[in-house]
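[step 3/7] fold_predict: job queued, chain A
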Amino acid sequence: MASLDSDIGQLNDNQREALQSYTSVTDQDLSAAVPLLQRSQWNVQIAIAKFFDGESPDPLEEARAALASSPPRQPVDRRETLLNGSSAFPRSSASSTRDLAPRIVPQPESRNLYKPPVLLSILFTPFNLLYRIISGSFGLFGYLFPFLPRILSSLASRSPARSSRRNTTGRRPLNPRDTAARFIREFEEEYGSHELRFFEDGYAQAYDLAKKNLKFLLVVLISPEHDDTTTFVREVLLSPEVGSFINDPQNNIILWAGSVQDSEAYQVSSALNCTKFPFAAMIVHTPQDSSTSMSTVSRISGLVPPSAFIAKLQTSITQQKPSLDRVRATRAEQQAARSLRQEQESAYERSLAQDRERTRQRREAEAAKLRAELEATSRAEAAKREAQKLEEWKMWRFQQIAPEPATDVKDVSRISIRMPSGDRIVRRFRTDTRLEDLYAFVECYDLSQRDIPIPTFAKPADYNHHYKFNMVSPMPRTVYDLDSGGNVGERIGKSGNLIVEPILEDEDED
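[step 4/7] structure written:
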């Protein structure tokens, strides 16, 4: 594992990207994916093609391996090889028992018409015109005598050569999925209902699924024209023991079947070297050959008893199961490591997101605190400036208040004022004194109680004073507000008993 990590660590960015793209498609082990990409010159498309289609052996590498493993030459007589029939290069036992199973993708029949060159088209234009004239004449002749075409067609249909050609034209080519559905439908129509679960797609899709999931692909090819087909299907393939064996989940068998009358099944039979029908072959991934190889591990040709059919399949499964179990264990370990790594990355991302959220909340709290401090400071400064201007205005307004009239003045109003502090003030005002002067007297009353002289102040600029109290007569209750204007004599009269009533904030807002 450490060597694999060191090998991956030595890859550059392009090679890492190619390895990630290859493993995301094939889900192959990293220990096998890196050598395959190296043999493919780090070309992802070539490596994927080798994985699915099987990697053909490299003659140069085989020759090097043979030279490296061959013993040193001994001075023997060259004629000995010819006399005793021995070979200088021993054959591999694995290649004698297993054949590579190719991945067959059916090629659709080309429906494009051949377009001759322009020069040939010009040369054959007279013949084309002559053919059209003759065919048009025959069409006119058939229109005038409509019974002749029916007679000619009936005579042609009785011809044995025509009949043989019509029976050998083949069937309509379809895509692999539709071809499989047609085969399954015709199979059920011919042999009735059954318990076999045929793979409902093409051979290439079944091949890829068996390779990816490490399952056994059982390929069954039949020829409707063969004499043993019906016997094989009814007595072998549809027998209860064969059906139970194929459907057993422990055997991991994918059943794909086809008729050689279809193009795909015919190509598969040619690729698997089928020489006798009915035919069955077991295909499975063989990791002992290479990391991408799919090999044919068992062949069953002709009519065999159900017991022999099952025995051959069971033998192949028993021989290949240990190697497949090792590959499954390796894949499970890699998947567990991949899942663990993904969980760790997910946990790290969540932790990082939580740290980012806490940092964001802390920054927002700090920013809100700073804004609150700035607003408090601004309000305090504004209140300080407002208090300073109020004090300047009171000093200026105090100087504008007229003194109390003398006792011999007749046009006066005697007013008793109860302050918010509880003090009662009795003062005389001229009857023509404005009501605002009475409010100013109450506002500036604290300055009149000072023993120090009041300095001279000018009216503060950009300041509008608002009185925060009302003068109220309790019996009956009358509010002498400034909005109504007037003077003391008109609003209050010769005497009055007033209370200074502060204006609450809610009332001020109303």
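[step 5/7] annotate
The mean pLDDT is 81.
The longest helix spans residues 306-400.
exit 0
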